[in-house]
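#onboarding

Welcome to the new folks! Below is a worked example of what a typical request in this channel looks like: someone posts a single protein sequence, and someone else replies with the predicted structure as tokens. Don't worry about understanding the tokens yet, we'll cover that in week two.

Example request:
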Amino acid sequence: MTGAQSLVKSLIASGIDTCFANPGTSEMHFVAALDELPGIRCVLGLQENAVTGMADGFWRMARKPACTLLHCGPGLANGFANLHNARRARSGILNIVGDQATYHRQYDAALTTDTQGIARATSHWVRTSSSASAVAQDAMTALQIAQTARIATLILPSDVSWDAGGVVAAPLPPLAPLAADPLAVDNCARALRDRATKTLVLLGGDALLAEGQGLAGRIAQKTEAALLAEYAVGRVERGQGRLALERMPYSVDASLKVLAQYQRIVLAGALSPVAFFAYPGKPSSLVAPDAEILVLARPDQDVVGALRALAEALAAPALELPPQAERPGIVQGASTPEGLARTLAAVLPDQAIICDESVSYGRGFYPHTHGAAAHDWLHQTGGAIGLGLPMATGAAMGAPGRRVISLQADGSAMYSLQALWTQAREQLPCTTIILSNRKYNILIGEYRAVGTEPGATAMQMLDLGRPDLDWVRLAGGMGVEAARAATLEECADLLRTSFSRPEPFLIELLI
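Example response:
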């Protein structure tokens, strides 16, 4: 048995069923083993950043890791940006990266590079297998790490794959999540009993899924604390039957205004709020200087268990949801952020998944979509644009049968539009709304934030016109049917049509 065969057999036995791949020469023996041994669905991405973004979206919905297959250090480097985003989303991914044969590295061939160095920047665990007999056990260790919402990278020299001597390895037992500190729970309970101090509970991670929300709602109902989601959050369960939570604002001024009213902030799976960037004359930390910060659970701890313990310590009664927001109607006329949000909420099917890389256009979508049917909302977490389309592709595979809607800025879509091709090949139920303003609008806003208007030279770097991007033709070239909408009622009609079909569809919405 070769090392590659032992690796594939061990992955199948451990429950890995999906591999997002863009392989090269060094990985051909692993590819051959995947071909010979059925059990893993192999999904081709036409660029590595699409591959890693798909693995991120898959984890967020399936709550288990997929593996990626990447070609040497440069292939891993191509997938770097969306591994950064995945790490910020706390997604579990098992990267398998081919490399030069162990005896060939000394010759410094063209693709030879510091693959381990590249991997360490986005991975929690990195190892290069040294022999065919070790590779399967190395993979089981990597998988054990990935199952704890972390990124593990296994580097596979090509001779380790093709050499005989492979040994199938048994899956390792899952690692238990880090429990919250009982003292932290007691401290938070004591503080929350003091209703005279205005308190915010800031939620992140699994606190924003159904069980965590229910527990947080009980705590807020008992103590009159406010609830808010952190800005860079991977997944929020929203819509009818869920809490009408808002997110921390993006802008420094808006965040300072929100947080100024709280003398105490309890962090439940969230980080203390900081500005996305530094700005002249503005603080980096967004918390009021005299505010008390209490950590109920760090992002790497069991935040749902901590919330449960806190609810019990407070004797918080069952949650009584406030009256639910009504489902809005379709808005007429040209698109506005509010109008698009309300129109989407009007037509959204039950249990849909929204993948949001709307960037600046979508920052105010939450207040207008609380009345939508129950859905999941996946956010861009790490700020490296180009995640939206791959994330939607992976989410569709991680939650089969659910409709996925991408809210996608046009500029960032160009970073990884190859994901549309994978959607077409796999016949995935993905509807993409391209927000077509033909500019990097977020950067125009950032330019103004430093105190001046962009001039002709700056606009050369911020404008996407001359020529205009034609998303109907771009999508068609990837095998995805597309149409253009100039009004929100046209967009609504196209959305409803797409929801009735099993394959992907793209709407270029002029904004």
